[in-house]
Amino acid sequence: MASIAKTIVLITGANSGIGFELAAQLLQKGTYHVLVGSRSTQKGTAALKDLQSRDYPGTAELLPLDVTDDSTISEAASTVEKTHGKLDILVNNAAVALPPGTDREQLRLAFDTNATGPWVLTKTLLPLLQKSSGARIINISSGIGSIGRKLDTTSPFHKMSGVQYRASKTALNMISACQYVEYGDLGIKVSLYDPGFTVSNLSENNRAEKGARSAEKTVESLMEVVEGKRDAEAPAFLHNTGRAGAISAAFIKDITLQRDDARATHIISAVGTSSLEKGKAFVRDNIPSVPTPHIYASYNEVYQDASVEAVYIGTPHSLHKKNCLDAIAAGKHILCEKAFTINAREAEEVLAAASAKGVYVLEAMWTRFHPLVQDLRKALFTDKLIGDVRRTFCDFGQDHKLGSLGPESRLKNLNLGAGSLLTIGIYSLTWGLLTLDEHIGAKASRPEILADQNLVDGVDVATAIILRYPANGRQGILTSTSEFKNGYDFCRIEGTEGYVLLRGPYASSPSEFSVWRNQSAGSGAHTRGQQSGSVLEKKYVNFGLGLYREADAVALDIAAGRRENDIMPHEETMRVMRMMDEIRRQGGATFPQDGDAQTVNSSVD
């Protein structure tokens, strides 16, 4: 019997390969109870016996389960409900590659096992997942199910045969996307994971002597998905490279997409990582086209490469200053991830160096380049669809599972700038600034700030900010937390004649907004709570994640001879950095790099 304190995990196809290794690594943690899903009772019993013989601190039990048989699915769900009352994590891992039979039979069984089965199983277990406070669904897919890679003549997957397996994984990818959208409002996290070419019983080719990666290595990165360490990347296709370079991987994939609306062409000339092995894995998994970029085991080698014109910096916050200064010294233009630096003092130093060298620098606050932002600001400040803006409420929360992370994690290590403010609170602050002030940069107002932070071991796990604009009385109430996931409606802007709702899976990735007018709008009266309905609804679909927009802006600015961007000018970067310094001063969060850098005024100049 499982301990009530343990996390209940069901892994299908857990009697061998990736499923078995995942069960083993979970049991080593001691905090999981694993349900070993197996179609074959004999093989499942043998796998369970093997796991139990290892004396791991975790617990496990056999759960007979054939994902192509609805009766066993129902029986499995009934067993889980009676024994545990809930399910915390479902890993849809069971798969077949080339089943026996005619073409029609092969295709039917591949789809039934790899796509239909996971869909039916998940729907059946949904009530049990909803009883968990941290439910998670992980679908094990494959990169060879990518339509884009199949059509890419430079891809190693272009000529690969096996339509049954490929097509079924393509279907699973879409099922995962639908689950992500449908279950997000239920608080259930959905991840799609590509283990890459791994040793397994899937086919005769999945062998170490043919270059397949060990299941142990693959599962090491899969464990990060299980533990929630890669939630920030969702809904992206998660690969087996682990967290190293996660945001950079997403950025690379975005800017190399074939887009009809592309405003610039981006060539990946060089990649810099901490080791050649990591660099090769990064290129293999994220840049499958040719020519292969130069791979360097240091960042400085990238800066010295004459073929490199601009550098994208996706390292932790505390490394941004050094990375930027080194790139500037080499005469490279820069797109640097947010938060731009640890504090305003470092940001000033970087921008001063860029000005002296005459190179371009842009903070990669990708949300500002989303077309929704421009349409929203037009609705608020030009068309005045809700009258005079009075208040903005914005929340960005992610459950980073901090308790499961080691002290070296960038989410807990103060030396790396850990904390909710610099990681996600910057988005809540940004929405406040964008919706309460029609100006940005040098022309923008300087609101008064009142802030509080919840600190655990010095790391802010929650930040609350009030912005007050004395000249017009506008207020912003902005929050962030790394302990809980916020809802789909993440921002509300109130005006004298109505309100606006902003929606999306994350505050960083908006997908729609709607404008609601009061019944009394236009009559000179205002009765709170009486709405006549939505007068404007706009929905947006990203091709990829949308990171390419900031990259296009860099290319266009450089081509035009500009050294900063109008949407995110240097003064706006400095304004945000100074505000976050003040928020931390009031809230108590400090970094080793601060010294006496934090401001002492509640009204930030």
Automatic annotation (TrEMBL):
Residues 245-361 form the Gfo/Idh/MocA-like oxidoreductase N-terminal domain. The keyword Oxidoreductase applies. This is D-xylose 1-dehydrogenase (NADP(+), D-xylono-1,5-lactone-forming). It is an enzyme of class 1 (oxidoreductase). It catalyses: D-xylose + NADP(+) = D-xylono-1,5-lactone + NADPH + H(+). Transmembrane segments: none annotated. One of its GO terms (molecular function) is D-xylose 1-dehydrogenase (NADP+) activity. Belongs to the Gfo/Idh/MocA family. The lineage of its organism: Eukaryota, Fungi, Dikarya, Ascomycota, Pezizomycotina.
